[in-house]
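Posting for a labmate who doesn't have an account.
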Amino acid sequence: MIDVQELTRVYGRGFGARPAVDRVTFSVARGEILGFLGPNGAGKSTTMKMLTCYLPPTSGRARVAGYDVYDDPLEVRRRVGYLPENTPLYPNMTVIGYLRFCAQVRRIERHRIDRRIAEVGATTGILDVLGKYIRELSRGYRQRVGLTQALLHDPDVLILDEPTSGLDPNQIVEIRELIRTIGRDKTILLSTHILPEVQATCNRVLIIHDGRIVADGRPDELVSREADNRYRLVLAGDGTPAPDDATAAVRRLDGVTGVDARMATNGELELVIAGARDADLRLSLFRLAADSGWPLVELVRTEMSLEQVFSRLTGAGAEHAAAGGTEAQDAQGAAA
């Protein structure tokens, strides 16, 4: 449904030119919810603006629902629903008035407009606020109205930019459920930097950094692929060995690549053990403790979080949205 090949967007000219998106390649199938992750200024918004025909690519190709964003931008727009981070609503219009206006802009036949609003509104849960002014709505309902306008023309592809930004926890849960419901029939590209949102909503993750794709796969696959094979073993009570003795014994096990020992103030001995990537050391560590008479109180295999994977791939605390950052140049780049 989305097919991107070597997509590039360069800002500036001559020696000052630099790519905001650098030879990005990926595809998204029908019914797939793709989480598009990256730190600020990584190229997420620039990519989405090219896919929605707001910005032309410098080079490369992108096809949406079978149409090229450069050669057939009007056909692409007809098949894409777009919800930008700052939902484009008119606060002095009623919800029904705004949606009728959007439907007319989308050239939906006049006799079908109210029926279509009712159909989509039932899915997005806005039927009870159709008569209200948009200025009277909560942030959560405004997002629902934004989603409704993006779905009115029954697009094949839905592109969402930070759809839960600024929402409270209950509203976030509601919008996530709504996205999952819509994703059963649509292809969804969801851009966000909120990692729990991706794990709760998406069945695939794409991570972009400095304009390039650095990871692609299911959330659990990325965690497994990047994870260190580490274990935490805690000993306590009579029979606890000296740290040096315990460290030496653990190091002799096959598959162990490193051991760090720490004696806690409560007298517990904690060992953090690193293993070869394909080794499962749990049984060997348990047998060592049992055979040695060590008072084992805890043995766990530590797991890496998606947040840790993201930090490893993009650099913890990376900030690229400072003055002169590429994302901040979209308006200038659009006119270039």
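Reply:
Got it, the structure tokens are right above this. Residues 317-336 have pLDDT under 50 and may be disordered.
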